[in-house]
Design a protein that fits this description.
The N terminus is likely disordered. 30% of the residues are buried. The chain has 2 domains: 205 residues, hpI Integrase, Chain A (Orthogonal Bundle); 132 residues, RNA polymerase II/Efflux pump adaptor protein, barrel-sandwich hybrid domain (OB fold (Dihydrolipoamide Acetyltransferase, E2P)). By secondary structure, it is of the alpha+beta class. It is built from 13 helices and 15 strands. It has a 5-stranded antiparallel β-sheet with strand order 8-7-6-9-15. Strands 10-14-11-12-13 form a 5-stranded antiparallel β-sheet. The protein starts with 17 loop residues before the first strand and ends with a strand. A hairpin with a 2-residue loop joins strand 3 and strand 4.
């Protein structure tokens, strides 16, 4: 494979200290969280498809693939640019080469099955394969510029979208997911003598299993059942008996849940916490109209009817939001026919906060 350009920027790494047996988080400034990373990924995907010219779409798809690899492997930009995509990416494993010795597989990093399948499908495209004839031979300055542009398009400070900051954000994300610090350091290819004592507490197999469990859980969040939202708590309003919890999901939509104060305390919910909210299909109602008036529902999400599965008694109306999240509303077939809902129609999916059930990962 031909030589690619080398990245030159410094690579901030997580703090190596450990307190109370928990992995320490980086303390040298903010980075994007899971929800913000999802917004950035959505922006990259939309940008990659948004051109009438095939050659430009292929070029943008290459940048998208570089982003996805950094996002989910935590590898450095120059490590990704040195990959031979047809040799080093195999199913659910990405083999990172040593940038100095060019050792074929200095470390192997597991990725989620859906992402592995997506990359595999992209690499099978004959035209896209031709764009990668020399691997990721892209000027790193050009890559950084595109990363910065996507970050600014999302309303983030541009430096937070740089490859090094995406790598750092992945490290923080893993540690907040209770991945042992040695496993995170191993994935990032970063080892220090100070970690020797810590590493003795975990076998190689235990570190591998911890990472596999996290990746599986992470994948399920992105492909979870309909009417399931994974996101971050952005507001908590406490009343005498009940509390209103508002989260923003990976697509940027807000969902409100009303629970008892007892449940709030029992779950230990706090601002910034990652959580899953679920709502059953029979509790979702559909309503037409460009603007929603005269409705007191806590949650009102606008989308397009993707399909209607009609049964003898009940019918499923699947509504797709702008971030491709799908909501399933269950209505009687007679009501569905009477309302005249059809695929492609814009509707509101509405449901009360009392219908939303919250789940933590603990």
């Amino acid at each position: 494979m031909s030589k690619v350009f080398a990245a030159s920027a410094a690579d901030p790494m997580p703090n190596d200290s450990i307190q109370a047996g928990q992995p320490a988080l980086p303390e040298d400034g903010p980075c994007l969280d899971t929800v913000q990373l999802a917004r950035l990924e959505h922006s990259f995907r939309a940008w990659a498809d948004n051109s009438p010219r095939r050659d430009i779409r292929l070029s943008r798809r290459r940048i998208l693939l570089i982003f996805l690899l950094i996002r989910y492997t935590g590898a450095k930009l120059n490590e990704i640019l040195q990959l031979d995509p047809f040799v080093d990416i195999n199913g659910q494993t990405v083999c990172i080469r040593d940038c100095e010795t060019e050792e074929p597989c200095a470390r192997a990093i597991a990725i989620a099955e859906p992402l592995g399948r997506e990359i595999e499908a992209v690499l099978l495209d004959p035209e896209f394969r031709r764009t990668l004839a020399n691997g990721f031979a892209v000027d790193p300055a050009f890559v950084r510029r595109k990363f910065y542009e996507r970050a600014e398009e999302c309303g983030f400070a541009k430096h937070l979208g740089g490859p090094e900051m995406i790598r750092r954000a992945r490290a923080v994300e893993l540690m907040r997911g209770n991945i042992p610090l040695p496993a995170v350091q191993k994935l990032l290819g970063h080892a220090t003598p100070s970690l020797t004592a810590v590493h003795a507490s975990f076998s190689e197999e235990e570190l591998r299993q911890a990472m596999q469990l996290f990746i599986k859980r992470e994948s399920s969040r992105k492909t979870s059942a309909r009417n399931s939202f994974f996101g971050k708590i952005v507001a908590i309003e406490r009343g005498d008996v009940q509390a209103r919890i508002t989260l923003v999901n990976l697509g940027g939509h807000q969902v409100a849940s009303i629970i008892t104060r007892e449940s709030l305390d029992r779950l230990g919910l706090g601002l910034g916490q990652l959580i899953t909210a679920e709502v059953k299909a029979p509790w979702i109602m559909l309503q037409r109209g460009h603007r929603l008036t005269g409705c007191s529902a806590d949650n009102r999400l606008r989308g397009e009817i993707a399909r209607i599965n009609r049964g003898a008694v009940n019918s499923e109306c699947v509504v797709r939001l702008d971030d491709h999240t799908e909501l399933c509303a269950l209505v009687s077939t007679s009501e569905s026919k009477a309302a005249g809902f059809v695929a492609g129609e814009q509707v509101w999916a509405i449901f009360n906060g009392f219908s939303v059930i919250l789940h933590t990962d603990d």
